[in-house]
Every structure is written in C-alpha cells, then in structure tokens.
Design goal:
Layout lengths: L1 E3 L3 H12 L5 E4 L3 H4 L7 E2 L1 H9 L4 H6 L1 E3 L1 E6 L2 E6 L9 E3 L2 H14 L3 E4 L2 E6 L7 E5 L5 E5 L3 E3 L6 H4 L6 E16 L8 E6 L2 E7 L5 E7 L10 H11 L2 H4 L7 E15 L2 E2 L2 E3 L5 E2 L7 H22 L3 H28 L7 H19 L1 H12 L2
Parallel strand pairs: 1-2, 1-12, 2-8, 5-14, 12-19
Antiparallel strand pairs: 3-7, 4-7, 5-6, 9-10, 10-11, 13-16, 13-17, 14-15, 15-16, 17-20, 18-19
Helix pairs in contact: 1-5, 1-9, 3-9, 9-10, 11-12
The structure holds 8-demethyl-8-dimethylamino-flavin-adenine-dinucleotide (RFL).
8-demethyl-8-dimethylamino-flavin-adenine-dinucleotide binds next to helix 1, strand 2, strand 9 and helix 9.
Length: about 375
C-alpha cells in the first residue's frame, strides 16, 4: 500500500493499516521537522477523538488537549454565548494543535513499523485502472523513482499528485467565496474562554485558543491583501475594534508569530475512487476553515478507508471499497452545508446596494434566531461539533 502525504489523513490511515499487519509506505514531500511544526487546525470534534482513541492514537491529545465547549458571538446587537456541551448531542471539542497531532501520529507509525519517506515528492499516479498502479516520485536525493502497490491513497492535499492524476471528466464541484482572511498565530494567551466570532461592519474577526500561550486569530481583509501588509500594531488595533475591546475588555497582545492569507474556497471531487486510487482529506474535498471541519473529515475518511482496505486486502471483501466514495461524500456535503451556513452568518457585505442590504438583514435575522431559539441552538451545536 502506498500513501501519499503525511498529514492527518495519511498518517491515521497508515497507522490503522500497519496495526492490522498491512505493509505500507508513506511518501511525504516535506521534511519531518516541517510537517511537525506546520500550524493549522486545532479543534478536534468528539467523534475525531473517539476514532483516534479506538486506534491507540489519542495519548497525546488526551494528556495535553483541552476541552472546549463555548462560543461567543459579538455583533451589532450585542454579544451572546452558546455552551454547546449542553445543546444538541451534548458534545465538545478538544483543542490540540494539528502539528502536535501530526508529531504523535508520525512517532506512533514509526513505532508500529511503518515507513515514511520524507523529502519524497509524488509526481503522478499511473495505471490506477489496473491491478498494480505506480507512483512516480522525485526521491529525496533528487533522483526519479517509482513505487508500486496494490492500492494508492491520495492524502496529499489540494495541490497533490493524486488530484493531478485523476482521469479527465472527474467532477470538481467548486465555490470561490471571494472572502479573504488573514490567518494569524499570536504569541499571546487566549483572551477569552470561548471561540470568539465578531461580526462587524469592517469585516469578520475570530479568536480561537490553541495552547495556554498561543492564540489563533482571523481578520477578514480585502481580497488580494498580502500577508505582510499590516503591521502587528495595526492587526491588534483592528482586532480590538472588531471584537469590541472597548466594551468587552482588551485582547491579550503579543508578537504575531505567523501570518497567512486564507482565501475562503470550497471544492469537492466526485467520485473519490478511481480504480485503485482513493482520495481522502483535503485531496478529496477542500472546506473553508469557518467551521473547523477539514482535519476532522480527514480523520473520519481515513478510518473508513482503512477499514475498507483491510477487508479487501485480508479477506478479499471489496464491498467497503465500492461504497467508500458515496459514504464519504454524504459526510463531506453535510459539512460543506454547515460551513457555508457559517460563512453566511459571519460575513456581512460592505455595499449599500439592495443585494448587500438584503444579505446583511438576513444575516442579522439568522444571528437573532441563534440567540433566541433553543431548537436553532440545538441544530447549531450538533453540526458545529459533529462530523
Ligand atoms: P494536509 O494536512 O495538507 O497533508 C497533506 C500532506 O501531503 C504532502 N504533500 C505531498 N507529499 C508527497 N507528494 C506530493 N506531491 C505532495 N503534495 C503534498 C504535504 O506536504 C502534507 O504533509 O492534508 P490532510 O491530511 O488531508 O489534512 C487536512 C487538514 O490539514 C486540513 O483540512 C485542516 O488543517 C483544515 N483546517 C482546520 N480543520 C479543522 O478540522 N479544524 C480547524 O480548526 C482547522 N483550522 C484549517 C484550520 C486550515 C487552515 N489553513 C491551512 C487554511 C486553520 C487554517 C489556517
């Protein structure tokens, strides 16, 4: 078995397969130090934690992760909090930085006897419609190479080789939202004990804890804004303004450790199987980070694929592989639906034309329902923390 990519999808898949005695190699373009320090997600859904626990992959997050169950909306009509552990299915998130999870998964995979080829870039998957597909690679020493396997899992993200190797005619459902965020990692403790969502006429601002010393912030900006366009001071002033620091208390400031431009964009490939090539994680579908679903879907899909591959490779039962794409797509589309609902909730429009005014009034009504309707809050909680 060849797995492309050592992110959450590829590493969960690899860990489960190796644990079941299936020989597999992970080909990863980057170096180990890079994948173990790449800060991205942090909010793991209850189901994700259950999957990781089931396969002996949750020691680190159970030891060092922190339970999280409240979000706070700050709007033109005041602020309100939802404790989602008391709503919907009564579940909560575990906050654990994605890079820490990846480091745990790499260590466990190697302990279990798995092989990871860091610095090895997959270039193309050939012959996926045959029995033994091949992956063409550039090895760590720069030389070309080939890996053959009974199956290939494309867990190499949105720009990976798996997507590039799909046959013509693969459907790509795509939506570009024309909304841009600055994704910021601040060397500062969280400023509140909740995820903060500020809906402001100047744009969206978000606050999400990562560790006791590091906090993620998002700041909506004009599309095309370069990551370094704003000074640290301007960033903090703008966050203060949008999050209503004058009214609700100042934010804990600190050095901005990392900044990236996040274009809100979603896509889903269909189907997720092409012969012996299977897609999982961001390679299968890209989901904007507004509802923190990407890493959670990656883990869920990895478990489904691992089960199906184990049945195929150990007892020759291919029913799971045949149903893999349809099963995952059901989860993916539900997550996309909720993520787009969140995008509509969190972003206003700046124009004064009829369309913008209508959008902003709908958004306000949606927030009012969420503030006052228990059934709406239950619905929100179930989808917010679930995958
Ligand atoms: P990854 O993590 O991108 O891993 C793919 C791996 O493949 C490697 N690769 C290749 N290797 C070999 N050959 C090639 N040709 C290759 N091309 C790429 C890459 O180096 C990499 O190591 O994909 P995976 O495993 O599918 O996991 C998906 C998640 O990483 C992603 O969905 C989340 O980070 C999204 N996301 C969030 N998801 C959540 O569930 N909760 C969150 O709170 C959350 N916050 C976020 C996020 C994504 C963000 N960014 C990246 C926009 C916050 C941010 C800022």
């Amino acid at each position: 078995m060849v797995i492309l990519g050592a992110g959450p999808a590829g590493l969960v898949l690899g860990n489960i397969l190796v644990d079941r005695g299936i020989d597999c190699v992970v080909l990863e373009r980057s170096e180990r130090a890079h994948v173990q320090t790449r800060a991205r997600a942090g909010f793991l859904a209850a189901n994700t934690v259950r999957v990781l626990e089931r396969h002996g992959l949750a020691d680190g997050l159970l030891r060092n992760g922190r339970a999280h169950h409240t979000c706070e909306f700050r709007t033109e009509d005041g602020r309100f909090r939802l404790d989602y552990s008391g709503l919907g299915l009564g579940e909560r998130h575990t906050v654990y930085p994605q890079q820490a999870l990846v480091a745990d998964l790499v260590a466990r995979f190697l302990e279990r006897g798995g092989q990871i080829r860091f610095g090895t870039e997959a270039l193309a998957v050939r012959g996926a419609d045959g029995e033994w597909p091949e992956v063409e690679v550039r090895e760590a020493d720069g030389r070309p190479g080939r890996w053959r396997a009974r199956y290939v899992a494309g867990c190499d993200g949105r720009h990976g080789a798996a997507r590039r190797s799909l046959p013509p005619g693969t459907a790509r459902h795509h939506r570009d939202l024309d909304i841009t965020w600055l994704g910021l990692l601040a060397d500062a403790p969280p400023s509140m004990d909740a995820v903060g969502y500020a809906v402001h006429e100047r744009g969206f601002a978000g606050h999400m804890a990562r560790t006791s010393d590091v906090t993620r912030y998002y700041l909506q900006c004009e599309p095309g804004t370069p990551a370094d366009a704003w000074s640290d001071e301007r960033i903090w002033d703008e966050l203060d303004l949008r999050m209503g620091a004058a009214k609700y208390g100042p934010l804990h400031r600190g050095r901005i450790l990392q900044r990236s431009v996040v274009e809100l964009e979603s896509d889903v490939l269909e189907p997720l199987r092409h012969g012996a090539l299977f897609l999982a994680g961001d390679a299968a579908a890209l989901i904007s980070p507004s509802a923190a679903k990407g890493a959670n879907l990656a883990v869920l899909e990895a478990e489904l694929l691992a089960r199906a591959l184990t049945d195929a490779l150990t007892i020759g039962d291919t029913e799971g592989l045949d149903g893999y794409s349809a099963r995952c797509l059901t989860h993916i589309w539900r997550a996309q639906e909720f993520s787009h609902w969140m995008i509509g909730l969190l972003h206003g429009r700046s124009g004064t034309d009829g369309e913008s005014l209508f959008h902003n009034s709908l958004r306000r009504a949606r927030l009012a329902s969420l503030r006052t309707s228990r059934s709406q809050q239950d619905w929100f909680a179930e989808h917010y923390v679930g995958v």
